[in-house]
């Protein structure tokens, strides 16, 4: 597939080529069905099998324990910023939020509309260049939950491991590093992720929620905002995002065939290490995240001047390396190298960086 260029987009992002080819082949008519997945009833046996298969493969891939529900919702991770507090922040309780970037800030904003929010940690004063240390966190005993953003897509930082929160349920926005490494689901009360970075296309949002937390969803909530309703109905209270679920199913199968999360994690580590090694090689490039907080998914770096950054963006695009311009809150460049991003693309970027430095350094 030589027409495909190297896609460093932060999201929606690259999907495995094998998945795209399979979806293309079966788009007009699913084998043995004679209709497209886009055209069939979500109540049909065919779609029920697709939904069940996606969930089963996702549970296998992530080792999701039986006492967790897997939900396929809509509205993106951004709707979860509201649904989490609407369902879990019970009257009179406090929710702790650890603020590590722009997405955490947006989550806080919605939670504050619902109830009492305590900022249990923040690195905003350092432009979110690092993840807070455990000893900096000021956790509320008996909080309704603690919310973290596991990977900060804009700032290129990532939690190396979960913060210790005791018995309080940990709620995580894992949109940009879900299934990039093994995940111990039992450490979390609720995990959510917009699909369009590591899991599938935009339009479907994954929620994994521990059974006991569903009891917190008040009956007075609007039906579509109620986790318990979605859980009771197996994500089929209304028409689910059928195509997104189908495609996520293909991505789950791809990930299993790659060797599962251990193998995917090892590949992600290799890709990130190669890029950071190049960033650190001479001082021409400068990583923006603190070394111990570096993301393996979104690699942010700057050049000696904004003029060189503009040239880098232009010339890399021309060289078939697309989407490297960084987010405006950090500036510089950002290479998003999610699960589906090939190692050959990292090699191509490293080669390009070296040549660029030789010409401009
Ligand atoms: C992209 C992203 C979001 C926003 O996701 P939507 O599905 O567009 O709402 C939220 N959180 C993180 C960490 C993200 O990377």
Structural class: alpha/beta
* Count of strand segments: 14
Extract low-pLDDT stretches: none
Rg from Cα = 21 Å
CATH architecture of the largest domain: 3-Layer(aba) Sandwich
On the 0 to 100 scale, the average pLDDT is 97
Small-molecule binders here are: pyridoxal-5'-phosphate
Number of helices: 9
Strand content: 15-25%
Instruction: Give a short account of the largest sheet.
Output: 7 strands, mixed
Euclidean distance between termini CA atoms? 34 Å
Oligomer: single chain
Please tell me the total number of domains.
2
The helix content, as a percent range, equals: 25-40%
CATH topology of the largest domain: Aspartate Aminotransferase, domain 2
Q: What's the helix-strand series?
A: EHHEHEHEEEEEEEHHHEEHEEH
Bulk shape? globular
Please provide a written account of the structure:
- By secondary structure, the chain is of the alpha/beta class.
- The protein folds into two domains: 18-257, Type I PLP-dependent aspartate aminotransferase-like (Major domain) (Aspartate Aminotransferase, domain 2); 260-360, Aspartate Aminotransferase, domain 1.
- 35% of the residues lie in helices and 16% in strands.
- The protein contains nine helices and 14 strands.
- It has a seven-stranded mixed beta sheet.
- α4 (102-114) links the parallel β3 and β4 (116-122).
- The chain is globular, with a radius of gyration of 21 Å.
- The mean pLDDT is 97.
- The structure holds pyridoxal-5'-phosphate (PLP).
- Pyridoxal-5'-phosphate is lined by residues 11, 76-78, 103, 149, 153, 173, 175-176, 194, 197.
């Amino acid at each position: 597939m030589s027409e495909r260029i190297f896609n460093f987009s932060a999201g929606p992002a690259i999907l495995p080529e094998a998945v795209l080819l399979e979806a293309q082949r079966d788009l007009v008519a699913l084998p043995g069905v004679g209709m497209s997945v886009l055209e069939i009833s979500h109540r049909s046996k065919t779609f029920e099998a697709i939904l069940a298969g996606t969930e089963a493969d996702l549970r296998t891939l992530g080792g999701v324990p039986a006492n967790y529900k897997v939900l396929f919702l809509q509205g993106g991770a951004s709707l979860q910023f509201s649904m989490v507090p609407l369902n879990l922040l019970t009257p009179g309780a406090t929710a702790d939020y650890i603020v590590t970037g722009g997405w955490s800030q947006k989550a806080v904003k919605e939670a504050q509309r619902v109830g009492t929010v305590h900022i249990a940690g923040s690195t905003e004063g350092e432009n979110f260049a690092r993840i807070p240390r455990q000893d900096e966190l000021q956790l509320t005993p008996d909080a309704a939950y603690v919310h973290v953003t596991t990977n900060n897509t804009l700032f290129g930082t990532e939690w190396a491991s979960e913060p210790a929160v005791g018995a309080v349920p940990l709620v995580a926005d894992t949109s940009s590093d879900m299934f990039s490494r093994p995940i111990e689901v039992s450490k979390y009360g609720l995990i959510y992720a917009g699909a369009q970075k590591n899991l599938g296309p935009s339009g479907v949002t994954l929620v994994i929620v521990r059974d006991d937390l569903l009891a917190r969803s008040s009956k007075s909530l609007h039906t579509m905002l109620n986790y318990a309703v979605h859980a009771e109905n197996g994500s089929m209270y209304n028409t689910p995002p059928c195509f997104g679920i189908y495609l996520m199913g293909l991505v789950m199968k791809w990930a299993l065939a790659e060797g599962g999360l251990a193998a995917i994690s090892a590949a992600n580590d290799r890709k990130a290490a190669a890029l950071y090694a190049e960033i650190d090689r001479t001082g021409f490039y400068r990583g923006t995240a603190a070394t111990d907080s570096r993301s393996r998914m979104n690699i942010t770096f700057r050049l000696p001047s904004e003029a060189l950054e503009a040239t880098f963006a232009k010339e890399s695009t021309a060289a078939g390396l697309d989407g490297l311009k960084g987010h405006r809150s950090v500036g510089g460049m950002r290479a998003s190298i999610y699960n589906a991003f090939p190692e050959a693309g990292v090699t191509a970027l490293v080669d390009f960086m070296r040549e660029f430095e030789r010409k401009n350094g």
